[in-house]
Write a structure and sequence with these properties.
The chain is α+β, with helices and mostly antiparallel strands. The chain folds into 2 domains: 85 residues; 241 residues, 2-Layer Sandwich (BirA Bifunctional Protein, domain 2). Helices cover 40% and strands 19% of the residues. The radius of gyration is 38 Å and the shape is elongated. The N and C termini lie far apart (80 Å). Bound molecules: phenylalanine (PHE). Phenylalanine binds next to β9 and β10.
């Protein structure tokens, strides 16, 4: 019995896997195992022999079983130990610039715009992308027969059957946020409102979804001169140049009077879009003095207050600043494009540290 014991204890200690242990278990204490066969022979013994051998065999069986269990546990510990060594990870290390994910140029530019206007004392406002006909049009002095409605290539939402109210729209511009902000905060006010807007249009410089940032400043003595200064200041800071060449063109918007559109000098040579040189102009924003009817719609007394508003195409200024020639590529989700034009996630744009590094 001692030989049997020594043999199995040694074999169990040497077993290198769970499978090997299982084989040993079967060979020793399985139905036809060596120890089980010995136990079966108890029946042929005299009662005296049996009284001695029975407890001994039972003790041996217990000893083998616990040796098997102990070896099994230590094999599992070793396997876990091995895995932990292989998967070792120090979560306290600083993040590495692996560039697996990047910040989309639109997000980057929106942050840059907010940083610049933030320095000028503007806060960020938001409004819904699906808005009522009233906020998107009427309140902005665009009544239902107005040609501006057709020009905007508006996307209309479906109405429930029998609903005769004007359908909601995918907002065609960020200007409805002017009204919502006036209603909410009254005057004086200084906000920008970046976000998505929608128009049924598609070519190299137009996509059905694009981005604008609205600006609104209302106070007692705001003038067109301050509008011009604000826009020039913003564009110089944004493009990170001493001078930008701008063209203020007299224009018309129902919600501003007078109105001006602003173009910026650029070139498209060899498929490369560059700002500040060349013979081309790219329209990047609309602006003007807020129409008295719009102030009224926002609950502000036009006899007491006046102000300016502007709407800048975020995608356009992103294309110009980062030399991206085709707007459509912004929304293709092409990983090679995103890696090329994307920004490192941990660089927050600010005026002191640099807007874009
Ligand atoms: N909402 C205008 C557009 O989308 C831009 C604009 C905003 C013009 C504010 C003037 C004042 O074209």
């Amino acid at each position: 019995m001692d030989d049997l014991r020594d043999k199995y204890i040694q074999l169990i200690a040497d077993a290198g896997s769970e499978a090997a242990l299982e084989e040993l278990r079967v060979a020793a204490v399985g139905k036809k195992g060596e120890i089980s066969l010995q136990m079966r022979s108890l029946g042929k013994m005299t009662p005296e022999e049996r009284q001695v051998m029975g407890p001994k065999l039972n003790a041996l069986k217990d000893e083998i079983n616990s040796a098997l269990a102990a070896r099994k546990a230590s094999l599992a510990d070793a396997a876990l130990e091995e895995r932990l060594r292989g998967e070792w990870l120090d979560v306290t290390l600083p993040a590495r610039h692996r560039r697996q994910g990047t910040i989309h140029p639109i997000s980057q530019v929106s942050e840059e715009v907010a940083a610049i206007f933030g320095e000028m004392g503007f806060s960020v406002a938001e409004g819904p992308q699906i808005d009522s006909d009233w906020y998107n049009f009427d309140a902005l002095n665009i009544p239902s027969h107005h040609p501006a409605r057709a020009e905007m290539d508006t996307f209309y939402m479906n109405r429930l059957e029998g609903d005769t109210r004007p359908p909601h729209v995918l907002r065609t511009h960020t200007s409805p946020v002017q009204i919502r902000s006036m209603e909410k905060h009254g005057a004086p006010i200084r906000i920008i409102a970046p976000g998505r807007v929608y128009r049924a249009d598609y070519d190299q410089t137009h996509t059905p979804m694009f981005h604008q940032v609205e600006g609104l400043a209302i106070d007692k003595d705001i003038s067109m001169a301050q509008l011009k200064w604000t826009l020039e200041e913003f564009l110089r800071a944004f493009f990170e140049v001493e001078e930008v060449e701008l063209r203020f063109r007299a224009s018309h918007f129902p919600f501003t009077e007078p109105s001006a559109e602003v173009d910026i000098r650029c070139s498209w040579e060899g498929g490369q879009l560059k700002v500040g040189e060349g013979d081309d102009w790219l329209e990047i924003l609309g602006s003007g003095m807020v129409h008295p009817k719009v102030l009224e719609a926002g609950g502000i007394d036009p006899n007491e207050w006046q102000g300016f508003a502007f709407g800048i195409g975020i995608d356009r200024i992103a294309m110009l600043k980062y030399g991206i020639p085709d707007l459509r590529a912004f929304f293709d989700s092409d990983l090679r494009w995103l890696r090329h034009y994307g920004f490192a996630a941990l660089d927050q744009p600010n005026l002191h540290g640099g807007l874009s590094r």
